[in-house]
Amino acid sequence: MNAEQTRLVTTIRDRFGPKSVVTDSADIAPWLTDWRGKFQGISGAMLTPGSTEEVAAIVSLASELRIPLVPQGGNTSMCGGATPPGDGSALLISLRRMNRIRSVSAGDRQAIAEAGVILSDLHDRVAEEGCRFPMTLGAKGSATIGGLIATNAGGTQVLRFGTMRSLVAGIEAVMPDGSVHNGLAALKKDNRGYNLDQLLVGAEGTLGIVTAATLRLFPAVAARTTVWCGVSSPEQALDLLRFLEERVAGIEGFEIVPHDTLALVLRHIPNTRSPLSGEHAWHVLIEATTSGDGDLLRAAIEEGLGAAHEAGHLADAAIAANEAQAEAFWHLRDSIAEAERAHGASIAHDISVRVADMPRFIEEAGAEVERRFPGTKVDAFGHLGDGNVHFHVRALDGVWAPERAKEVSRLVYDLVGEAGGSVSAEHGIGQLKIGEFERLTEPARVAAVRAIKHALDPLGIMNPGKLVR
Amino acid sequence: MNAEQTRLVTTIRDRFGPKSVVTDSADIAPWLTDWRGKFQGISGAMLTPGSTEEVAAIVSLASELRIPLVPQGGNTSMCGGATPPGDGSALLISLRRMNRIRSVSAGDRQAIAEAGVILSDLHDRVAEEGCRFPMTLGAKGSATIGGLIATNAGGTQVLRFGTMRSLVAGIEAVMPDGSVHNGLAALKKDNRGYNLDQLLVGAEGTLGIVTAATLRLFPAVAARTTVWCGVSSPEQALDLLRFLEERVAGIEGFEIVPHDTLALVLRHIPNTRSPLSGEHAWHVLIEATTSGDGDLLRAAIEEGLGAAHEAGHLADAAIAANEAQAEAFWHLRDSIAEAERAHGASIAHDISVRVADMPRFIEEAGAEVERRFPGTKVDAFGHLGDGNVHFHVRALDGVWAPERAKEVSRLVYDLVGEAGGSVSAEHGIGQLKIGEFERLTEPARVAAVRAIKHALDPLGIMNPGKLVR
Asked: What top-level class would CATH report for the domain B344-425?
């Protein structure tokens, strides 16, 4: 640590006690590498505040001493968004000690949770009040509320509930000068200028440090119905979704899986079998939930699927007979990444285009990549109804030369750009995608992002090197 | 006009033809005074672009020549938000010629409308496709999409559909340097930094000029059920709302009216009668709609009201027997402002607090105002379920001394501030409320608004004197 960093650490420890700072390098080490192992940072100490007051004191002092801070929650960023720079110039600030759920109100359908609350802990706590916080994703056992807000996280329930942005009613944050923004009152109507809460969602910690949030709750799920369908094309899958949405309330999962990707899962993951007997070019996993009568939901789905079959929107469908079968259906979807890994490296792209354009994009971009790079295979799977798929490219021989991988990614992003889509649908920009963000986003938007960053954080101390260079 | 203004006007007319500028002062005059007649501005010409390209050319030139621009739609701002400064330094730019509905897609549930499209025209057009754009308000025959976005308009359907912010899927805007931001692709998931679309909603034209938007559509309403209830207190009214929301899908209107306010309507508005025979301290107008079976909806409401009565959540209720009666119920609610005017001047306050706090606020703040200012009567009516009421203060003798009116308003806003609420729930800040916004909003938020304004509009040419001094 340099002299300023030492001064900050000493001052904070003197004021808030030994729990407020970690200096043992062995304790810091696990938090210096990102989840995917792509980035490695250095931080001489890890600040671990236990309250908003402590965060404000730290940021205030960091501002005075010009010390950059890198906020971190569960350290599950897919883009190196929470990894400090490699030169040791910044200090990590971990929000994990701020893990109180300040309140849960079933009547108001709101909970106030601190930034360090782990997503699955929030799920459990609100369930005790008969409520549900609908956001969920693979990393729910480690991802924190603060990180989910900073990255505007997605997950599998976006179709019905939107991304984290829609689930945040208000935010408490420490701004770059150490002042506190308290938006926890979560006014339903408040037209006093620019919406600061919404600006902080998805800002990746570059405009301030989220310390707590008021979150929207929904009635607990009483029953779910899970379906596996075979369809002939992504186009047919999207038609099926629209057809069903007119007839069934509560559809919240709609995941598309290509035939070859399912085959990969069946080959590499033990104890898996296809829910359908025939061969289908594309598969769809559908889930609907209700807080009311499960039999009514199931009846609506059966009727909807029957009508869809008659109208030519699907080839075959299997409704999970029980919870175990529903779990087995989801296990197929959730095992894709593992199956790909068993096969060899694949190159992941988290991309989106307009929902209506996604079927054509999947087919055309997939064909283009496989044509331009012989020996590759595209696995485009995931959230069709959100216009967002995980566009993974496998090498059929399981091996990628780094240069070739880069060329493939560049082509994928070029195709996304041509389609007016986004090079980051749900994972953010972090360190990983700054180049592609700048290359393929309209200049007016990139300029606005830079101007806002420099206006709110003129000293550049908030998560440096992320989103904005 | 000064030399620069003349140069801009001439250049634009030469390039885009006579339709692109209005210089006849009689044609400009109606647009120089705000809807409530509180502000009077001067503008030597009114720019009337017909396309995004024209707007971009105007802004680009205005930026070069340092000429402030005041964007205007239907000129129905309640806060002087679209009235130019009184010194003639700025030029009006009216978006009303940009009134194309570029597309309506029932499949995607989206429409793309230009800024100058009048709200009721959009309603009619999407209805042809079996769709509904749910935002509606009194000024729907003149308010434009651009203005509704710039002010994040509310209205009576917020309970179910949210404010304009929730209904905007993407925005096209000309930024202060003349560059065009095109967010019309309306990606459902797009995590490339700060959300520029959301920042432009409610920005009152101070960060750029909205030229078009992608708007969310919903299935057309097939039937509605309208109910008038008598309750004993705002607290009971909110309990009733929560009770009904658990049992009836599609509740979208929930308007509270105090006894004395209803009495004022019955006295001053011809052909009105109370829907209920008995006396009630508070009244509630409830409306639910469905795109499906109207009989099912009505049955659900009847059952819900019956259960609510048994549970002690209401004293009496009348369900409108037909459309004429439903209209008569709404006429009572919509005539409050007119009844107040017939009585004498009233001082209006558009305020919000947390939904859960609103019942207590209405009673306590109402009593405090009437106690501190003898001879006054508070009409607190409107959107209880949004935590937003129109807090009007009448003089019982119908006459207000200007100084006394100011003192009353100051007290009302102080009480809102103490309750952690907003001095502008749905009308924005404009010119009218800058002082109260700065006085009663946390410093971190005011500072952020100013910093963002100066960063994106460093020359200060975008709607000067609104929101930010």
From this structure: alpha beta
The Cα A436–Cα A443 span in angstroms is 13
pLDDT, tens only, B360-392: 999 999 999 999 999 999 999 999 999 999 999
The shortest C-alpha distance from B40 to chain A (Å) reads 23
- Cβ of B150 under 8 Å from any chain A Cβ? no
pLDDT in tens, A157-174: 999 999 999 999 999 999
ipTM field: 0.94
B163 part of contact set with chain A, CB < 8 Å = yes
What tens digit of pLDDT does each residue of A100-146 get?
A: 999 999 988 999 999 999 999 999 999 999 999 999 998 999 999 99
| Cβ separation A107–B207 shorter than 8 A | no
**pLDDT confidence of residue A460:** 98
pLDDT bracket for residue B344 (50, 70, 90): confident
First vs last Cα of chain B: how many Å apart? 23
- Is residue A141 within 8 A of residue A73, CB to CB? The reply is no
CATH class, range B3-94 = alpha beta
Q: Tell me whether residues B444 and A181 touch, CB distance under 8 A.
A: yes
CB contact under 8 A, A108 and B355: yes
Q: What pLDDT is recorded for position A35?
A: 87
CA distances from B340 to A252, B206, B265, B361 (A): 47, 33, 8, 22
Question: Which residues of chain A make contact with B191, given a CB cutoff of 8 A?
Answer: 151-152, 154, 202, 422, 424-429
Rounded to whole angstroms, how far apart are CA atoms A302 and A324?
19
B421 close contact with A: CB closer than 8 A: yes
Amino acid making up residue A41:
G
d(CA A379, CA A234): 13
Quickly name the fold that domain A223-337 has: Alpha-Beta Plaits (3.30.70)
Q: Which fold has domain A347-379+386-426?
A: Alpha-Beta Plaits (3.30.70)
Q: What share of chain A is helix, strand, coil (3-state, %, to 5)?
A: 40, 20, 40
Chain A neighbors of B437, CB-CB under 8 A: 192-193
Q: Which CATH class is domain A101-219?
A: alpha beta
- Return the DSSP state at A389: E
Indicate the residue of B107, B192, B424 with minimum beta-carbon distance to A192: B424
Using CA coordinates, name the residue in chain A closest to B189.
Answer: A425
DSSP state of B33: B
Residue A423 forms contact with B (CB below 8 Å): yes
CB contact under 8 A, B354 and A185: yes
Instruction: Judge: B388–A189 Cβ closer than 8 Å, yes or no.
Output: yes
Window A:164-223, CB contacts with B under 8 Å: 165, 175, 177, 179-183, 185-196, 198-199, 201-204, 207
Residue A30 sits at the vertex; the CA angle it makes with A29 and A31, to the nearest 5 degrees, is: 90
CB contact under 8 A, B191 and A386: no
Is any Cβ of chain B less than 8 angstroms from the Cβ of A260? no
A176/A355 Cα distance (integer angstroms): 37
Query: Which residue in A96, A138, A142, A97 sits closest to A119, CA to CA?
Result: A142
pLDDT (mean) for A183-199: 95
Among candidate residues B277, B239, B280, the one with its CA nearest the CA of residue B257: B280
Inter-chain contact A193–B105, Cβ cutoff 8 Å?
no
Interface residue A263 vs chain B (CB under 8 A):
no
Query: Domain spans of chain B?
Result: 3-94, 101-219, 223-335, 344-425
d(CA B50, CA B19): 8
φ, ψ dihedrals at B282, nearest 5°: -140, 150
Q: What is the DSSP secondary structure assignment for residue A232, as one 8-state letter?
A: S
Q: What is the per-residue DSSP string for B408-466?
A: HHHHHHHHHHHTT-BS-SSS--TTTTHHHHHHHS-HHHHHHHHHHHHHH-TT--BSTTS
